[in-house]
Amino acid sequence: MPGTLFIVATPIGNLEDLTPRALCVLGEVDLIACEDTRHTRGLLNRFGITAKTISYHEHNERQRAEELGKLLEAGNNIAIVSDAGTPLISDPGFRIVSAAIKRGIQVIPIPGPAAFVAALIASGLPPDQFFFAGFLPARTTARRAILEELRPIPATLVFYEAPHRIAATLKDALNVLGDRTAAVARELTKVHEEIARGSLSELAQRFSAGARTRGEMVLIISGANKTESRAGAKSEDAPARLAARVSELESEGFDSKLALRKAARELGLKRAEAYRLMVAQKKRRSK
Ligand code: SAM
Q1: What's the CATH code, domain 4-113?
Q2: What pLDDT, in 10s, does the model give residues 111-134?
Q3: Is the CB of 263 under 6 A from ligand 1?
Q4: Fewest Cβ atoms nearer than 10 Å: which of 156, 163, 188, 249?
């Protein structure tokens, strides 16, 4: 009989959030695959679990997926956990799960904490439709391009973010999405838990580049309203937004040609169209 692969959610801070079912599975499996064995050992020790552990991460997951697949076929029951929260959610594990499914192994989820769910339900923003976008790119150009793609989505937007990037992300979000309602949920389930709610401009000020921000955080931003959504990426205010971004880049030292090319890329516009919009914007201004 082949074994079973359990995907086990673990706490995102408060250890009391480990569910009784997770505890039971972790105590009974033959092997626990962890992102970081030393990190998970702390959790297991706390609950007196002595199961064997093996590491898997971004760099060895392909190979581990093969190895674990064979162990599962040989009848071993295996649990995968990540450092915190639900494995596979902005965490590795997907390759292991798909390899197991390909081999016909039974895969059982053991649900529990996930930072984005906790943040969304306490944010005060509508949870009926949401778009979980994971981590935004670290570089401004790529980050703005993704925000631009997300702009017309009529659902609450949810992001994971690092403390050293929150100021830049809030600034980009404000520029690309406009002054929408948002929340930053920090250190959820931990001693310094905080949910800062307000407009993007208020939050950008609160988490400005000078302020020291610590902890893990989730950023939630309200979705596009009907008009924004209908207008889509190439909205009526595209010329104004293009012009604003071009002048921002020029003030950062880009020459006007390069600024236009860069701004066009960020806004997902073809170069010729961007040029046409700039001309239209100039005409609009001179009237
Ligand atoms: N798999 C995890 C989950 O289910 O939430 C997410 C892992 S991802 C590598 C780590 C990110 O999740 C952090 O950078 C932060 O954005 C978010 N996060 C994790 N724990 C958190 C917490 N206690 N409070 C707020 N955000 C948290």
Answers
A1: 3.40.1010.10
A2: 999 999 999 999 999 999 999 999
A3: no
A4: 163
Contact in structure between 219 and 182 (CB atoms under 8 Å): yes
Decide: 149 and 267 in contact? Cβ < 8 Å: no
- Tokens coding 257: 């040609």
- Taking the centre of ligand 1 as the mean of its atom positions, its distance from the CA of residue 256, in whole angstroms, is 40
Task: For residues 192 and 214, give the distance between their C-alpha atoms in angstroms, rounded to a whole number.
Answer: 10
218 lines ligand 1 (CB under 6 A): yes
**Domain 116-226: CATH architecture, name and number where available:** 2-Layer Sandwich (3.30)
Domains of the chain: which residue ranges?
4-113, 116-226, 235-286
Q: Which two tokens stand for residue 189?
A: 């389930």
The pTM score is 0.84
Span 210-259, pLDDT tens digits: 777 889 999 999 999 877 776 664 555 677 778 888 888 888 888 988 88
In a mutational test of the pocket of ligand 1, which residue from 10, 36, 58, 90 has the highest number of ligand atoms less than 8 Å from its CB? Answer: 90
